[in-house]
What we know:
about 50% helix; Butyryl-CoA Dehydrogenase, subunit A, domain 2; single chain; Butyryl-CoA Dehydrogenase, subunit A, domain 3; four-stranded antiparallel β-sheet; 10 helices; 9 strands
Amino acid sequence: MDLELTETQEHVRLAARDFATRAIAPKAREIDEKERFPEELIRGLGELGLLAVNVPDDVGGSGAGVVSYGLAMQEIAAACASTAVTMAVTNMVGEVISAFGTPEQRQAYCPKLASAEYLAGAFALSEAGAGSDPGAMRTVARDDGDSWVIDGDKQWISSGSYAGVFVVWARTGDTATLPGTRGVSCFLVEGGTPGLRIGRAEQKMGLRGSNTAALELEACRVPKSALLGKLNGGFKVAMMALDGGRIGISCQALGIARAALEESVRYARDRRAFDRSIGEFQAIQWKLADMKTELDAAHLLAMRAAWLKEEGRPFSREASMAKLFASEAANRIVNHAVQIHGGYGYIREFAAERHLRDARVTTIYEGTSEVQRLVIARSVLSP
């Protein structure tokens, strides 16, 4: 693994940083306070090619690779984690369609996701009783001649109210002969399809500018051509998406943590107590030292996983390790940031408070920390 960035990777990183600094960061507080979906920023990301960083250029993507995507995600998340969520999921949807779709599916959806003609893509895997356990899924898809008819409910769907296309998982196999995840298939459902109803937006602790909604599918009819991948092969699609998504969430957590550290350093230099800056006190210095050390360690884990994926090598364990460490380190870092800011860290005038709320969910979505530990342990214990 070469730690030096290629010309392409550096170009993507700098382009993302410029847009994040110039266009996103000044709006981050307002997006959070008003729970506003940042449509204009998503369109700007599309213009820069950041909604399809690892999607091949023959279907409208940038084709810049997984490392470039991880670097860009860190930059956008450092400015506004809510905007980064929409970017992350849309990239994931484009990648999955590119990897498993037919030529017709790839040409129909990938360019629209990449350009923000579709404001977002969305994954509809989780259900109220099937989050970490997709084998408990109850949504079903019934073969009805030239169509599939989907019935069920989905929960925690990022960008649900704005997505142009949903990747929907449903049970297609008999539970007696194909139990658990063996009888699950994957479908592409366009926004506005009759029978697809979007529920109210959830009111969340953090990531308040990222739309999260429930879905109801009632006699939702899609053509046979909507099947993504093989019949009863949907679990493979989900695992590919989640493995790659864990790299994205690692980098999102890194971006939030980096912003918290940078703001803590500035505050420690400026805030004075007992006739000197608080950064001169060992208690503050040790917090900053721990924050920086954990941040750099998490970055290396995330980049290793991204590099392995880009090289076409196995990366599932490394993605889980990166996601576990980066998300939990980010939560420790933002907690330190609030403590360094003292009372100011607890009010919304300072961004430390927002970073604390935004970082919390990174240990939950795309697989909880507990699930990551299971994945890692099984790999360690396997012969």
